[in-house]
């Protein structure tokens, strides 16, 4: 028969989870958050341009009356 697998202790599982969560948080902070901020600001800028166009259109249509 093959080698018997040793079941990890609760302490080892807790250490592994703590390490893995720390790595996940680091990844989110380093990679995901900056991307979200970059794309969010771009979307806000695009929305602002479109709102400016809408405001210009509304002003022009109001002047025609």
Characterization of the model:
With about 60 residues, the protein is mostly helical. The protein has a domain at about 30-65. About 85% of the residues lie in helices and about 0% in strands. It contains 1 helix and no strands. The protein has one helix at about 10-65. It is rod-shaped, with a radius of gyration of 27 Å.
Core attributes:
rod-shaped, 0% strand, 1 helix, 65 residues, mainly alpha, 83% helix
Residue share in helices? over 70%
**N/C terminus separation:** 92 Å
Largest sheet descriptor: none
Shape: rod-shaped
- Count of separate DSSP helical elements: 1
Radius of gyration, rounded? Answer: 27 Å
What is the count of β-strands? 0
Report the order of strands and helices: H
Q: Assess the beta-strand content as a share of residues.
A: under 5%
Low-pLDDT residue spans: none
User: Which structural class best describes the helix and strand composition?
Assistant: mainly alpha
Mean pLDDT: 89
Compact description:
Helix content is about 85%, strand content about 0%.
Topology:
Elements: H1 10-63
């Amino acid at each position: 028969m093959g080698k018997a697998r040793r079941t990890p202790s609760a302490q080892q599982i807790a250490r592994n989870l703590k390490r893995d969560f720390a790595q996940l948080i680091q990844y989110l902070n380093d990679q995901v958050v900056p991307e979200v901020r970059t794309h969010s600001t771009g979307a806000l800028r695009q929305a602002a341009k479109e709102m400016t166009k809408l405001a210009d259109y509304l002003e022009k249509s109001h002047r025609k009356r």
